[in-house]
Design goal:
This protein is mainly beta. It is built from 2 helices and 9 strands. The chain is elongated, with a radius of gyration of 19 Å. Bound molecules: zinc ion. Zinc ion binds next to loops.
């Protein structure tokens, strides 16, 4: 069957950056299972997979606008040193978690350590990046009623039985 909204799809994939560097890959792992049309993969890849079938291969370059979005300079900001735990080891490249008012957590990358503040970047690591995907479709089936009501895939490769 063709991939369409509410299909359960499994794919093998390799994601590369502009320089040909491998950012992520399912190689050596189970394929990725997802529920098509539910925003579980980036929009540009989801669009490229519509109508594909088992064993189809898809090569697509997804611009940032249809990937993880553009980099937002507003998400780079300084935090005063005295607002951070005193025992925190701070240096450029360290990842921190910022608590949000709704109880979530946003990862922050420390980009610069100043005498009384640190500069952090809350952009997604792949914001602004063009994503080069090489995908092989491994399976397509209809979602069950339970999968649709839960909004995720069940069984092998899924959340729970
Ligand atoms: Zn469930």
């Amino acid at each position: 069957m063709d991939i369409q909204n509410d299909s359960v799809v499994s794919i093998d994939y390799t994601l590369k950056g502009d320089a040909g560097d491998v950012i992520d890959s399912s190689e050596g792992r189970e394929p990725l299972f997802y529920l098509h049309g539910h925003g579980q993969i980036v929009p540009g890849l989801e669009e490229a997979l519509v109508g594909k079938r088992e064993n189809d291969e898809v090569s697509v370059s997804v611009p940032a606008e249809k990937g993880y979005g553009p980099r937002d300079p507003q998400r780079v900001f300084q935090v005063p040193r005295d607002k951070m735990p005193a025992d925190l080891e701070l240096e450029a490249g360290v990842m921190l978690q910022m608590q949000t008012p709704d109880g979530g957590a946003v990862p922050l990358l420390v980009t610069e350590v100043l005498p009384d503040a640190v500069t952090v970047d809350a952009n997604h690591m792949l914001a602004g990046a063009t994503l080069h995907f090489q995908v092989t479709v491994r399976g397509v089936r209809e979602a069950t009623a339970a999968e649709l009501s839960h909004g995720h895939v069940h069984g092998p490769g899924g959340s729970h039985d």
